[in-house]
Amino acid sequence: MRRMPRPTLYVREGCHLCEDASVLLDDMLGTDGWDAVEIDTDDDLLVRYAHRIPVLVVDGEERAELIITRPDVEAALAR
Q: Strand pairing of 8-11 and 35-38?
């Protein structure tokens, strides 16, 4: 049986796209089915993701960014 990957969403406080992606992930995976990482708490993450958030990462690979849609999430989880 194949293990379901656990997505991570890199977010930032006050980001409306992050909020939209969070709601989508909650709807698709449940509130316990994914992780959120606040980039403002880590200088390296801030430099890496500041102008690209939200960024969806699955199994260590960046799979989608900015406007994240249901098909984006489905494709990211199917890989």
A: parallel
Note down pLDDT in tens along the chain; length 79 residues. Answer: 556 789 999 999 999 999 999 999 999 999 999 999 999 999 999 999 989 999 999 999 999 999 999 999 999 998 7
The CATH number given to whatever domain includes residue 16 is 3.40.30.10
Range of the domain at 32: 8-66
Report the domain count for the chain.
1
* Side-chain half-sphere exposure of 45, counting CA atoms within 13 A: 15
Kindly state whether residue 15 falls inside one of the protein's structural domains.
Answer: yes
